[in-house]
Amino acid sequence: MKNTLLSTVLVSALSLSSCNAQDDDTTTEVSNEEKVIQLLKSIETGAQEPAAYINPNNYVQHNLGVADGIAGFVATLQALPPNSAKVNTVRTFEDGNFVFSHTDYNFFGPKIGFDIFRFEDGLIVEHWDNLQVKPELPNPSGHTMTDGTTEITDLDKTEKNKELVKNFVTDILVNGDMSKISAYFDGDNYIQHNPNIPDQLSGLGATLEALAKQGIFMKYDKIHTVLGEGNFVLAVSEGDFGEDHNSFYDLFRIENGKIAEHWDVVEKIAPKENWKNQNGKFNFPK
């Protein structure tokens, strides 16, 4: 069965690639964002056609639990329990050749995830993601990990907002310079979607203080990439939370030059001996 599906996907992908190369003027254009939405939804529906948006000859996988190439993608779909997968992509954004998405999954159990796809010539050639088990209850302020606004605004401020987020993560989360934190927020106003932290900047501070009293500390070591569209910016970082070495994906909404809202997904990085590919979790193009 797996070999049959893989053959079908490869034939479909090669056919689409040929069509794109030879018939660009007559083929109905599908946006890269829509391609991502369709591909992710195919995990639930089993539709084979969206896999044709993956370059069959060049697909680099950075999910360390999935083998490289399109064969690894298909093998993962085959391993899912029948009719178990659910996919609700809540947000998608585009930054140059990158599309990044925020999705509510049932993927080997309920999870929230961020996915990043890199495109070349209309086909997906690279994929990164971060997945976290979905909590059963909202956070202390009643928010889930995906609710909140989805409207993209301030497209002319994309680069300025990316710089703001990069500076915030560097100053506060990497360097730990808490004396600068108030400059990034509008007073105490701050909507929080982390499952364990309440709203308001004071809520964040109280939570971090309580964790520190228990000997649990969060420390970011390095920012690997910052992507954005308008008022939304995603920062991908690496660091430690307690005893675990983690990948941090933080999505921020910027309003009037200040951080107004935050969603995140934290994933423990698997030991290298358990990796199914050797592409690395954070190997982004420079």
Automatic annotation (TrEMBL):
Which Pfam families does the record cross-reference, listed alphabetically? SnoaL_2
- The name under which this protein is listed is SnoaL-like domain-containing protein
Could you tell me which InterPro entries the record lists for this protein?
NTF2-like_dom_sf, SnoaL-like
Keyword Signal applies: yes
Signal sequence coordinates: 1-21
Alphabetically sorted, this entry's keywords are: Signal
Stretches assigned to the SnoaL-like domain: 166-262
